[in-house]
Specification:
Number of helices: 5
CATH architecture: 3-Layer(aba) Sandwich
CATH topology: Dihydrofolate Reductase, subunit A
Strand order of the largest sheet: 5-4-3-6-1-7-10-9
Strand content: 25-35%
């Protein structure tokens, strides 16, 4: 049976990106980059918007305001290009241009449930906030990992991650600090039907 990991990279205030900021907010360090390079092989899951963004980077499209991808960003995109990827979308057309991608038009929750039951290894989301939210609500997420970068992007932050989420209890299973400033926390999540003090009135 496969294990499903929801994996987010965020600012301290819970944004997935910020207008005018480079990838990793420009704050990645050698320990963090080394850890990224040591990650086990996974199959990445994503929706159409994340596919369009990441496949664009792979094809040479640059983020707004950047003249070129930094070496760290380029290595990250190259690694994603080589990895197997499953894209859930009813709007994208086959064949997908980005290498090693499989398009799935079926309901994502049902498809991931089947992938977990029949597969092995690790399934990991990348971006795709609504997909992650749906998989969590369905109780399919085994591990919920957040790497928080030491920046608050209150003025420029984009893609608030946790809006629309259910209440979730989190049991910590790992934590680590990279380069004296980047914090990883990993949890086993449990979706709550109501807050601990009882159902709402």
């Amino acid at each position: 049976m496969s294990e499903l990991l929801v994996d987010f990279i965020t600012s301290l205030d819970g944004y997935a990106s910020g207008e005018g900021w480079p990838g990793f907010w420009g704050l990645e360090g050698p320990e963090y980059l080394a850890w990224l390079g040591e990650q086990p092989e996974v199959t990445y899951l994503m929706g159409a918007n994340t596919y369009r963004l990441m496949s664009g980077f792979a094809a040479g499209t640059l983020p707004d305001g950047q003249d070129e991808l930094r070496a760290e960003e380029e290595a990250s995109v190259d690694g994603l290009t080589q990895a197997p990827k499953v894209v859930f979308s009813a709007s994208l057309a086959e064949p997908l241009a980005w290498a090693n991608c499989t398009l799935v038009r079926d309901d994502a929750v049902a498809a991931v449930r089947e992938m977990k039951a029949s597969g092995s290894g690790i399934l990991s989301t990348i971006g795709s906030l609504s997909l992650c939210r749906s998989l969590l609500r369905a109780g399919l997420v085994d591990r919920f990992r957040v790497v928080m970068f030491p920046v608050i992007t209150g003025a420029t932050g984009q893609e608030r991650i946790y809006d629309g989420y259910p209440d979730v209890a989190l049991e910590m299973i790992e934590h680590r600090t990279f380069d004296g400033r980047i914090q990883l926390v990993e949890y086993a999540p449990r979706v709550l039907e109501h807050p601990p003090l009882g159902a709402p009135a």
